[in-house]
Design brief:
alpha/beta, about 45% helix, five-stranded parallel sheet, 7 strands, 11 helices, globular, single chain
Length: about 260
């Protein structure tokens, strides 16, 4: 049976070729969260659970993950980011499996997820709600309002996941707002915070399945933006599409050591 690590490698390969074919940017933020999305969808999400991709720039990684599950076809991925596509650059519209909200305007996902978690409680449902955010979007006040609300409501069916790759549109998070690590600030709000490597599927699975009664969980995933590409860890990975040379380098990595 194909292992999850092998599935991640194949999905990374498809994601890279999809982005290169359409000359799409935001490759870095997709590569930093692919293992998270793959582990979440292949090993963690139950049939009644819900997922929100708050960091809508990583739409490609979500689509590739859905492809790995057989929920999207190669033909679907070939239309990525094109006019009249089912799969726009930020997830929106009908027809995307599991999509509950259009995202891409950063900072909204945690509030939406908290609302879903509270609604599940009122409905007597046992479902969990997972929300994947970027670290840069936690400069938005709406994220902290959502966290405060979730803590007050004791939403232990809510798991907020932060892809902490340390880069955003105008530089590192340290340069932009003097914050390289969100864990102390999150803990200061009284949140239960768990840390894991965002590129280790076993560590990701363990972190996402470790919950505590009476409080939401925030999982900080340490990742590398653009992992496996020539510009990994650099600002270029936020904006620029892959050149032919960068694609070849990244494909070689995708076929090699993932962890």
């Amino acid at each position: 049976m194909e292992s999850l690590v092998e599935r991640v490698a194949a999905t990374r390969h498809r994601l890279l070729k999809m982005h290169h074919a359409t000359r799409s940017g935001h490759v870095g933020g997709n590569l930093s969260c692919l293992e998270i999305l793959m582990t979440l969808h292949h090993r963690v999400l139950g049939t009644d659970d819900r997922f929100i991709l708050s960091k809508g720039h990583a739409a490609g990684a979500l689509y590739a993950t859905l492809w790995s599950l057989g929920k999207l076809s190669d033909a679907d991925l070939d239309t990525f980011g094109q006019n009249d596509s089912l799969l726009p650059g930020h997830p929106s519209g009908a027809g995307i499996p599991g999509l509950l909200f259009s995202t891409g305007s950063l900072g909204h996902g945690p509030s939406l997820a908290a609302g879903l978690a509270l609604a599940a409680r009122h409905a007597g449902a046992s479902r969990r709600v997972f929300c994947l955010c970027s670290d840069g979007e936690w400069q938005e006040g709406s994220c902290w309002e959502a966290l405060t609300f979730a803590l007050h409501q004791r939403l232990d069916n809510l798991v907020l996941i932060i892809d902490q790759n340390g880069l955003q549109g105008f530089g590192t998070t340290e340069e932009v707002i003097s914050c390289a690590d969100l864990m102390p600030r999150l803990a200061g709000f009284g949140a239960r915070v768990v840390r894991a490597s965002g590129h280790d599927v076993e560590a990701i699975e363990q972190a996402l399945n470790t919950v505590q009664a009476g409080t939401p969980t925030v999982v900080v995933m340490d990742t590398v933006k653009g992992r496996g590409a020539h510009y990994a860890g650099r600002l270029e990975s936020h904006y620029l599409p892959l050149s032919d040379e960068q694609l070849s380098h990244a494909l070689a990595f995708a076929g090699g050591d993932i962890l």
